[in-house]
Structures are given as structure tokens and as C-alpha cells.
Amino acid sequence: MSAAYMAQGVSAFLRSIDQIQANLANFSRDLDTRSEKLAALLSAFEKQGTALAEQFTAPKAEANGVDIALQASLSAKNTALQSWLNKVEADRKGRQFMHKYEKYLVVMIFGAVKSGKSTLGNFFGGREFRRAAFDNAYKHIPLPDFQTEENGRESGGIVRDEAGEKWFAEGVTDTTGSIQSFTLSGLCWVDSPGTGALGKDGDKRSMDEMVDEYIPYADMCIFLINSGQPGLQEDMRYMERLSREGQEAVIVITRSDTVEEDVDEAGNLIRKRVPKNPADRQKQEDDMRQRALAAYPIKEEHCQALSVSTLLAKQGIEKGDEQLYRASQLDKLMQILSDKAAGDAARLKEKRPRRAFNAFVDEILGREVRDGDTGITFLQKSLNSVSAAIADTQKAMDNETTLLVLDIKSAVRREFLQEARSWAKSVKDDNSALDGAEVTRRISQILYRVMQTKISDAISRIIVDFKAQELNSFQLELKTAGLQHKTKTISVAYSFTGLRERDPRNLLEHVGSWLGFTYHERYSSTRMRKEVIDLGTNVEEMIDELLPQIEQQAHSIVQQAMQELRESYFKPQENYILTMSKALKQLQKELAGLKFAETAGEV
User: Fold this and answer.
1) Which residue of 12, 305, 583, 597 is surrounded by the most CB atoms within 10 Å?
2) Is 259 in contact with 315 (CB distance < 8 Å)?
3) Which are the contacts of 279, defined by CB distance < 8 A and separation ≥ 6?
4) What residues are paired with 261 via a beta bridge?
5) Between β-strands 105-111 and 187-191, what pairing exists: parallel, antiparallel or unpaired?
6) Phi-psi region of 142 (alpha: psi -120 to 50; beta: other; left: phi over 0)
7) 129-145: per-residue pLDDT in tens?
8) If we measure between CA atoms, which residue out of 340, 343, 353, 106 comes closest to residue 221?
9) Which residues of 422-454 are buried (b: 16+ CB within 10 A; e: fewer)?
10) Spatial separation of the C-alpha atoms in residues 189 and 124, rounded to whole Å
11) Which one, of 361, 356, 292, 353, lies nearest residue 106 by Cα?
12) At 370, phi and psi to the nearest 5?
């Protein structure tokens, strides 16, 4: 038995993960600038949208088609913004994590209770090698630095052993509800909430959301499965969230050992731990790998399965037994990590966050159409739906105008005829007159009053929550002499008969005249006198003169009033659509400019 193989393997492993630090510079600085600019753009867009939407937030007992479309658009905007801002916050935390471990090979571990996550983590942290009788590289580097990245549940965790050294707690029956890790040389080992940690009373955070924030920054994900309980477990669904390129999944089938009975030289029955049959191991590895590939969208070359036994590895290290250590196959897992660190891990660490950033920008731009899409393209469609609802309502109002004009002209005609005769009586009784300007003013009032009622009623039939608005004042342009009381003076001839004194006509009458007598004669005369005839008022002439003018002018006035009311009612919505469309277009332009160039070897 020899420990040289184990010591050499450890040295090679630590050298490879240490080399990754030398291959990475501060690649994340440019990403920080772009991410902060993206957050600022979204924040400005949110403030602008909120200010514009304040006038539409009051609840309505009834809603018309425009209101329904507008509220749907506002809801879509709010949902999208909340989703984007949540991701910005997650991105901020993720970038902090990335900065912290940008020079490390980040390996994230998933597994159910009792699958051996903590034991495997402690193994790669070097616990067994530090306690080994033989010299190895682990003894010449600092202890791993354990810490909790985020605590979503008070269970599991990190403990100190009798020597005061920190390690992952083993044998914990409850499920770890934290993102906890250790760093060692160029390795960052991240322990995740285990299978079943999807929600418990007292949880501070959603376990699924926590994993979502960290998994994009992992270089490799290891899924542990107990060989005694094979099958796709709940946490393997995270494979769906691995990048399509660069992030590898290793399915590690733990506890791949069994107890074998034998007889020692003294004839005593002994039990010893041995690896499972190689054929059985291979069969289980092939089965798990194929099932995972069938269930989750991960590239075949990025998914492998390996059977291991940490117990055999511990025994091999304790005894310095190379054969037992090889049988554990943890040397193979160590080689997989070494190859990853020495291979393209550094390039992919630069590429992956940039690709993730571009994917986030594309999501906001709406270039990936899917159910529940909340991208800019979707938001513009929701604004277009409001415009379409406005257009439909305006068309209905246009259709209403023709009948409305006829109705208004008929009502004005009735009121005008009734009022005109009342005016005529007053003019006659007072022997007064109404000039053309006053008649025009009174008829304009009648038209305004009828239009106010008729138009409001008509619009209310189309827009259920329409509140009557005062029409703009107007003045008809009527040509009329006004209303007058007319009379006619005529000259009338009449005959008049009377007596008049005359001169004496004969001697006798002359004698009589001397005696004082007077003599008369009858005569007839024609005289002229003036008579005033009451012709009444010119109301009928005025009616005949004005009705054609009223009907002609009423048509254009009603149409103009409808147009003004329409513009007044829909102006806030149309202004919102116009302003938000411009804001979306500008946001789209600026976000597109933030993307990393998609050139070979970059993103």
C-alpha cells in the first residue's frame, strides 16, 4: 500500500485550481458599469411611468373598453417593472458574489438529506488529508475559509470541531436552508439548500429564489444522489437553469459501496466495506445520466455521472491504502474539477456573466417571446391595444354623430318654434322689437342647451362612465332682421253731407235777409282719413328665414363639439400612450446599446 498516488493527486488538484486565479483579471468591471446603467435606465423609466399613470389609478365602478385596455397596460407595465427590478437586485447580489469569487472555480452542490453533501464538501476542503499520516499539499495551505453567503433558514450550517476548525455540519437531519461556502486556494465550494427545502414555516426567503440568484455564477454543478435511492430528485430541476454552454452538471452517485463478509486467518468472520460491483456502478451511472438528459435541456457533453464512496476514500486515506482510495473514485471527481480549472473555466467565467447580461437585456427588449412575456415589445402591444380601444370608441362616436345631428336639429326646431311664438307675443304686447343680434343669441342658447343634453346622453351610451362636460361656447351666425310688431297706415275716402249758409236767391229772400233771416243749403263732400292696421309680428317670416340657417350651422357645430369632447376625454390616455411609447423606444435604444458585442470567443 502506498500513499504516493493520493499525495500526487492532491498536489495536482490544488495546483490546477490555484492556476485559475492567475488566469483571471478583474473582468467584471465593465459588467458593473453596464449593470448600473441598466438599473438607472429602469429606475428612470419607472418614475416616468408612475408619474404619468397617477391620473388613471382611481378605481371606477364601471369600466369601458378603453379603461379596461388602459388598466391592462398599466398592470403589464407594473408587472414588468417589478420583474425587471427584482432581477436587477438579484443581479446586484450575484455580481457581488461574482466579484468575491471571480478568481475561483465555483462548484455548487445539490443534494437531498443524507446524500452526503456535507461529507463531500469537507473532503474537498481537505479535512481527511489534513489528518492523514502521510504528507500532502493540503497540510501546507491555510484552512478553508467557511462562511454563510445567505441564510434563509436556521438549520444545517457550519460548525467547529474539537480542534476549533470550521467544517460543514454532518449528520444534520433537517434540510440546510442556506447558501454556505468555503474557499480554498482557487476553489469556491458552494453548498445549496437541499431537496425538500422548498418552503417551511419560519423561512426568511424562498429557497428556490436563493438558488436562482447564485446558480448563474457557478462553473460546475454537482448533483448528489444516494445510490440506495436512485432516481431524479427534486433539486435536479435546477439543471434547467444551467447555461446552455459552459456550465457542466456532474451527477455524483454517493454511497457506492457495500459490506462484504470474509474470514480472517484465524477463522473469524469479518465485515469490510468494499466498492459496489463495477458493472452495477456503470449501469447506474448510465441510467442516471440518460434520465437526466431526457428530463432536462442540458448538452450531452456537459453532463456526466460518477459513482463515489466518501467512506472508502476516508478509509483509504486513514490507512494510506491506494487501492481503497481508487475504489472510492473520488480521485476521478477530483480530476474532473482539475480538468475544469485547467481548461476553459477562466474564459467561460468571463463569457457567462456577459451572456447572462445580454439575455436579461433581450428579455427586457422582448426578443424572447414566451407565455407571460413582460418585454418592451409586449408593453408596446399593450399600449397599442389602448389605442385600438380608443379608435373603436371614436368610431362608435362618429357613427353616432349622424343620428345625433338629426335628433338635435329636430329638438332645436321644436324649441325654436315654441320660443319664437312666445317672443312674438311679448313683442306685440310691449310693442317692442328684438333685433337680429338678440334673436341670434337666444337661438344659440337653445342650440347649446339641446346639444349639452343630447351629446352627453349619446356619449354616455358609448362610454359608460362618461361625466358630462361643459361644451365650449359658440355663437350662431344668422342673418335676420329680428322680430318686430308690424302695423300699416292707410288713407280712407268718405262722403260728408251738411248744411251751409247761402246767399239770398230772389227778391223775397233779399227782403227777408234785410229783415234778419238767413238761408241754408245742403251739400255733399268727400274726405280722406288715415287708419293704422295691426299686422301682428313677422314671426312666421323670421322662422322661414332662420330654420334653414340653423339646420345648416347646427350640423358643423355638433360635429365640432363631438370632436372637442372626444379629444378632451381621450387626451390624457393618448398623451400617456404617446409619452410611454417614446419612453419605451428610448429605453429600447439605450438598452440595446448596453449589450456586449456578440463576437467569436466573447459572448
Assistant:
1) 305
2) no
3) none
4) 271
5) parallel
6) beta
7) 999 999 999 999 999 99
8) 106
9) ebbeebbeeeeebeeeebbebbbebbbebbeeb
10) 8
11) 353
12) -160, 170
What is the signed CA dihedral for 569, 573, 578, 581, rounded to 10 degrees?
-170
Nearest to 542 by CA among 439, 470, 469: 439
Beta strand ranges found along 468-554 (DSSP E): 483-502, 519-537
Q: Residue 333: name the closest of 301, 306, 302 by CA.
A: 306
Q: Are 456 and 568 in contact (CB under 8 A)?
A: no
Q: Are 215 and 198 in contact (CB under 8 A)?
A: no
Smallest CA-to-CA distance from 124 within 144, 108, 102 is with 144
Rounded-to-integer distance, Cα 81 and Cα 571, Å: 25
Q: Please work out, in degrees rounded to the nearest 5, the angle formed at the alpha carbon of residue 310 by the alpha carbons of 216 and 150.
A: 35
What is the rounded distance in angstroms from the CA atom of residue 558 to the CA atom of residue 451? 7
The single-letter DSSP state of residue 497 is: E
Contacts of 464-467 with CB under 8 Å at 24 or more apart are 464/62, 464/63, 464/64, 465/60, 465/61, 465/62, 465/63, 465/64, 465/67, 466/569
Q: Which residue stretches of the chain have pLDDT < 50? A: 25, 198, 371, 600-603
* Helices and strands (H, E) in the chain, number of each type: 15, 14
Q: Are 494 and 565 in contact (CB under 8 A)?
A: no
Q: Which residues of 515-525 are buried (b: 16+ CB within 10 A; e: fewer)?
A: eeeeeeeeeee
* Residue of 256, 260, 263, 254 whose CA lies nearest to 273: 260
Instruction: Find the Cα–Cα–Cα–Cα dihedral 376, 33, 182, 233, rounded to 10°.
Output: 10
> Residue 443 has which C-alpha cell?
337661438
Give SS3 for 28.
Answer: helix
User: Could you tell me if 393 and 69 are in contact, meaning their C-beta atoms sit under 8 angstroms apart?
Assistant: no
pTM: 0.58
Instruction: Tell me the per-residue pLDDT of 359-369, one tens digit each, with 9 for 90 and over.
Output: 888 888 887 65
- Residue 150 has φ and ψ, to the nearest 5°, of -155, 130
Cell 369600466 appears where? Answer: 63
Nearest CA among 24, 23, 35 for reference residue 596? 35
Nearest Cα residue to 168 out of 153, 181, 184: 181
pLDDT digits (tens, 9 = 90+) for 268-314: 777 777 888 899 999 999 998 998 888 888 888 888 999 999 999 99
Alpha carbon distance 432, 85 (integer Å) = 77
For cell 372626444, the residue is 566
Phi, psi of 319 (to 5 degrees): -95, -5
CA 193, 122, 289 angle in degrees (round to 5)?
A: 60
* Alpha-carbon distances of 472 from 129, 451, 561, 565, rounded to whole Å: 91, 11, 7, 9
What whole-number distance in Å separates Cα of residue 349 and Cα of residue 186? 13
